[in-house]
Task: inverse folding
């Protein structure tokens, strides 16, 4: 890679690294796996930089690489392995003071979604992409994005709605 291309690559990555990491984290729910996904994305981006930098929408191209890396990793058998619980050196904190309870509930609900729905919800609502841009990143139809998004949001609402709210609603309907 020429020096000017390397500079362009470095500037691009520096400006988008935190967003890429956030997207990867929202997809997989684990900071270390997110690091691995971002690293694999940036490696592929570096190798293909000349081609990518000439693309019409570089951000969409990079997000497509990121989502593909996430989906590819999910297909591997080792991705289902979970190691131990909380490290012994972890310091407990008051979750209510930091809004961690809500964030944890959202991440748990996101992890429960099928990988396609999770990718659509993350790209649409956390990365703020349009339906068309999401379809371009995922290389699927606009209708597929809409249906996956609808199903994913319904599943998130169901998972995040307190049980007593559903019971109260059911009793008002006469059920």
Result:
């Amino acid at each position: 890679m020429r020096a000017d291309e390397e500079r362009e690559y470095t500037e691009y990555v520096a400006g988008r690294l935190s967003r890429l990491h956030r997207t990867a984290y929202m997809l997989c729910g684990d900071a270390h796996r997110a690091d691995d996904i971002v690293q694999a994305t940036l490696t592929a981006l570096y190798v293909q930089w000349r081609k990518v930098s000439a693309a019409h929408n570089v951000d969409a191209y990079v997000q497509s690489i990121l989502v593909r890396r996430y989906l590819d990793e999910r297909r591997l058998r080792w991705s289902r392995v979970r190691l131990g619980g909380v490290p012994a050196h972890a310091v407990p904190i008051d979750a209510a003071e930091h809004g961690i309870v809500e964030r944890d509930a959202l991440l748990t609900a996101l992890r429960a979604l099928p990988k396609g729905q999770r990718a659509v919800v993350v790209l649409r609502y956390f990365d703020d992409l349009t339906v068309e841009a999401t379809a371009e990143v995922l290389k699927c139809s606009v209708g597929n994005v809409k249906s996956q998004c609808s199903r994913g949001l319904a599943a998130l609402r169901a998972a995040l709605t307190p049980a007593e709210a559903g019971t109260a609603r059911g009793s008002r309907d006469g059920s």
